[in-house]
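Anyone else keep sequences and structure tokens together like this?

Example one:
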Amino acid sequence: MGRSLPLFFEENSEPIDRRIAVGLRKLGLAMKLQAWEQANHEGLSPTQGQILATLSLEGPLSGSELSQRLGVTLATISESVRALVDKGAVVKRPDPRHPRASLIELTPQGRALAQKVTTLPDAIVSAVGALSTLEQEAFLAGVVKIIRSLQLSGHIPVSRMCVTCKYFRPNAHEGALPHHCAFVDAPMAGRHLRIDCGEHEQAEEAQREDAWRRFVQPE
């Protein structure tokens, strides 16, 4: 039998946070490649596919709003929107909120294309489904915290998560359903947290900070 080296891996391993980051990078690359393949199959660029997917989820948006959602320049959005208009996938209409701005809206053809490019890869969904219920819940909580941290540092735009919503009430109850959604007036557990919710309305900064504090450090 070989010599026992109980501390070998303690002394010869990358920090766990770096290993997790490497794993997330691999998953992100797999998702990105799948999205590119889907968009390319439909004759779209990756950015055009993202625009269609975002409009499908959120409805008509201005160019500035798309730029903020996707984290790309307004010039890139404008160029992609022009191409989508030429393809008959979107139309530009006056924005009633800003007389000199336009809203980009999906056409019926654009909605059909959006449906094709927003489908999650079956392999990824199946892999996540192979995790136990407890593993899925812990993974979801970790993903929420990572996304929130990246938002606070300005590395990614704010997405429509429960933890940034004005209707979210973290740790408002005792027991298995500690959180509360004021929009539907119902309690919820950590496994019910949404990463992208259609009813999301962003809370004011002070409310977001207070909700996050109560979420990660329940009293």
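And example two:
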Amino acid sequence: MHIRRVVLLIAVAAALAGCGADGEPIQPTMSASVGVGSSGTYGGVGVGVRRGGLGVFLGL
């Protein structure tokens, strides 16, 4: 539950930052995956921001 809240806050911050700031725009990114393996199912999410050649990504 706590991890979801952190991921949501990061996604909201990235979206707000990309809405229109001075200078080069910041591009928010998000990914989600679900997989099935021999040990069961698993899932993952990630959010990030990119500005020019610099990018930061957080995956859980």
